[in-house]
Design a protein that fits this description.
75% of the residues lie in helices and 0% in strands. The chain has 89 residues and is mostly helical. α2 crosses α3 (26-49), α3 runs parallel beside α5 and α4 packs antiparallel against α5. The longest helix is centred in the middle third of the chain and has 24 residues, at 26-49. The N and C termini lie far apart (30 Å).
Length: 89
């Protein structure tokens, strides 16, 4: 998990945090959730530049974000409706 954090792979780290909810990972997982939220915000903000188009996201990132939504109710409630509306299928 520390290696993923060092490499800045927060989406992958957030997925792991869903599986490892131990107290020892709390700080690193909080960072992962914060950075994941920022990354999703960044993706969705692209639509502001092109309001008439849907945002294209690479398949790996899209799959990771959707997996995070399936395992994290807070992020799902916050982002999923907008994600479905803005991100291209």
């Amino acid at each position: 998990m520390l290696e993923l954090k060092k490499e800045g792979k927060y989406l992958e780290l957030a997925i792991l945090c869903n599986e490892h909810k131990d107290e020892e990972y709390k700080e690193i997982c909080n960072t992962a959730w914060d950075e994941t939220g920022r990354r999703i915000d960044q993706i969705l903000s692209q639509q502001a530049d092109l309001p008439f188009l849907r945002v294209s996201v690479d398949q790996k990132t899209k799959k990771q974000v959707e997996e995070i939504f399936s395992k994290n109710p807070a992020l799902k409630d916050r982002y999923l409706p907008i994600w479905k509306k803005i991100v291209q299928e």
